[in-house]
Design a protein that fits this description.
Blueprint (H helix, E strand, L loop, with lengths): L1 H23 L22 H22 L7 H31 L5 H28 L19 E2 L2 E2 L2
Antiparallel strand pairs: 1-2
Length: 166
């Protein structure tokens, strides 16, 4: 649970930064590369703020998916959907880390701080994804038998040592 909470707090920093940028109508990231004034030409009136509010929403979705990973799934499809989303967000953060850090090293545009932020974010998301996977597999009934209550394997189907008891 600590990894999930750390991931939520880390994502919350991103969301807070994007709220500030949306209210100011600015492009970019806190600690990210410098944004040229020409970049604003691609946006109409109010569209910069709208784009940043979209980024706020994406951060909130990431936080929700991190929380959803703590659900005790009884069906495979919801589990796979949450696991897929975790993996997608982890990949996006990793690509952001490589892109921002690499761009900062190769050019003079800046962005190394946000690249480092993305690297930590990717690690937190990866660890949360691993926990989702481990948690789901740890809760599955032993031996593939479905118990009728309590998640226990019926006594007649329990395996003791190398011998199947019946």
């Amino acid at each position: 649970m600590r990894i999930v909470m750390a991931g939520i707090v880390w994502t919350g920093l991103y969301v807070a930064s994007k709220v500030v940028y949306a209210l100011e109508g600015k492009l970019g990231f806190t600690g990210g590369p410098r944004v040229s004034p020409d970049s604003y030409l691609a946006y109409g009136p109010g569209e910069v703020a709208l784009a940043q509010w979209g980024n706020v929403a994406s951060g909130v979705v990431i936080m929700a998916i991190l929380l959803a990973g703590r659900i005790r799934f009884t069906r495979r499809l919801p589990y796979l959907m949450v696991l897929w989303a975790h993996g997608l967000f982890t990949a996006v953060a990793a690509v952001g880390a490589v892109g921002m850090t690499g761009g900062a090293l190769v050019t003079d545009r800046g962005g190394a701080v946000f690249g480092a932020y993305c690297a930590v974010w990717a690690v937190l998301l990866f660890l949360a994804t691993r926990d989702v996977r481990r948690g789901y597999h740890a809760r599955r009934p032993l031996g593939g038998h479905r118990a009728k209550s309590g998640g226990r394997v019926p006594a007649r189907c329990q395996k003791i040592g190398d011998v199947q008891e019946r």
